[in-house]
Amino acid sequence: MFKILRVNMTAQSVKFEDVPQKYQGLGGRGLTSTIVASEVDPTCNAVGPMNKLIFAPGMLGGTNAANSGRISVGGKSPLTGGIKEANSGGQAGQYLAKLGIAAIVLEGDPPKGKLFKLIVGKDKAELQAADDLKGLGNYDTVDKLKAAHGEKMGFVSIGQAGEMLLPGASVAFTDRELRPTRHAGRGGLGAVMGSKGMKAIVIDPAGGEMAPLKDPEAFKAASTRFAKALADHPVTSGGLPNYGTDILINILNEAGGLPTRNFSSGRFEGAEKVSGESLNAVTQERKGTVSHGCMSGCVIKCSGIYLDKNGAYMSKWPEYETVWAWGPNCGVDDLDAIAQMDRMCDDVGVDTIETGCAMAVAMEGGLLNFGDAQGALKVLAEVGKGSPLGRILGSGTGITGKVFGVKRIPTVKNQSMPAYDPRAVKGVGVTYATTPMGADHTAGYAVATNILKVGGDVDPLKAEGQAGLSQAFQVATAVIDTVGLCLFVAFATLDIPDSNQAVVDMVNAKFGLSLTGDDVVALGRKVLDVELDFNRRAGFNAADDRVPDFFKREKLPPHNVIFDVSDADLDSTLKW
Amino acid sequence: MLISIKLAGPLRKEVQGHKKGELELELPEGTKVSGAVVALGIKDRVRMLLLNGRPLLDDRELVEGDRLFLLPPELAYNMYVATGFLSPMARDEIRRKRGEKE
Fold first, then answer.
1. Mean per-residue pLDDT for A206-225?
2. Which residues of B touch A420 (CB under 8 A)?
3. Which residue, A153, A193, A154, is CA-closest to A171?
């Protein structure tokens, strides 16, 4: 049945083993976090031999459930020093699930100076030398891997940033067109992969099979209901396919919560120029692709293909977070420049959020003027070259801010805040402060219960009710991440509560379980408890669950608000 | 009274006379938020709205210089936004569907 593939870089060995009892009944984030918490010393050096890197498809991986091909990557984060799960689309999740692989665990210490690639297929795995890939960006790496292994593969890789063990390094996954444009971005797990000497993983899906189902009839009925909900709901069938996540630029701008010029204002005068509406318009003008799915089985297709002025491929559609980090937060209103930054980040293999925020603090520190897009492109190019300036930027916002003497560094647990100012969208601020992941917006992104009862009357600009809202969102998100679904399926829940029940029914039908709604909540809480425990053992305490003090003092225009959720409320968020 | 409107995404195809979603609307004194939406011809198409950049719990009268940002159901994403910025009309509709008292 399902196996764990252990890859020991010290012994240079690969071994398939049965899934031990303590890891059964889990997938995705639930599995990566459980393995990390069980096998990694929380006080270890995150780029040393005692850390491990885990790849795991979700519980619904390998089925034909819509949008079930996500993959979780887990380990101790070199950026935060705490536990980390980073999530990605692309093809790897489905391929591994269909090969019957519950998780790949990279462990041990590679021979110094050597790079490797792991070839994984049906009942086979092999470590091979990969020194010919040294110093290459992800695009060139994938081109060489395609030439060596053919094009019917899925590729996982790191760019120069991961090789250099930079704390902002990402893990890249190829999409259906074999572009390395989907990333497990947050928290520097690309550096952990680099510390294991692993440049790439080549996944050969040949011989893979659909995952076995305990009750195929019940599964089919539930997955049909689920797919119908996604096809019917206006967000998943209309908004996301046509405008992508970037539509949020104008929304957050109007709400006064779009962090601008290193979180100094909540509105950006150039917002419309980099909005989802503009992205859709310029893509249509240049005959790019407006709706593009990053993984097989996706029925939402929120991504797109961005072409430059001459009609040549530049990058996939930059996400809201990327547009924001390199756009409004840097004072830049040039979508072409931002798409180029997106491509460069994908190529060198860094988190666009972390690195864009690092650029913004560097601008505040005087390295460049805010709005200097061309200057930002030049500095970003330094990352791949490994120059001292490039290494600073690639090490994230916290380090960059310190090096440039910046007083206003927007991080929690040393991870940079994403594209919602916590003063204007206070519920997100509570999530930033309290999630075990560090400042993270996707950690609290989904709903399982009837959220309109809990959250429908919670004002984003006020402190009341935010802790309860964040708790509900974080628990639900932990479930979605464990099940392996794309987070965006959750939007359908707001109007079609049955879509949530359909997910529970699919899990029950696949595994022969009888989980109820309460069991699902318990699962989400269990995943969070495992993560919170790891962080405690790593040395974190309540003092780390706070936003930087400038958010509590500086009033954010235009609403002139501060982050005023009490410490007591923050401390109650993940207690049950 | 004159108010300003910003339309999001697909609503820009459903309303005429705007520039990149921005337009000004002349309304009779005492017109409520719901009335403005009707005057634009997009009744039942507004799921979320911001009045002067803030969420609005209940329908109310507009005043000169107010600014409305209007979003259709297709754009109800990011959970905090989708729940926090529901239009009063959408909140009423949801409560009615669930048989709750207003």
1. 97
2. 78, 80
3. A193
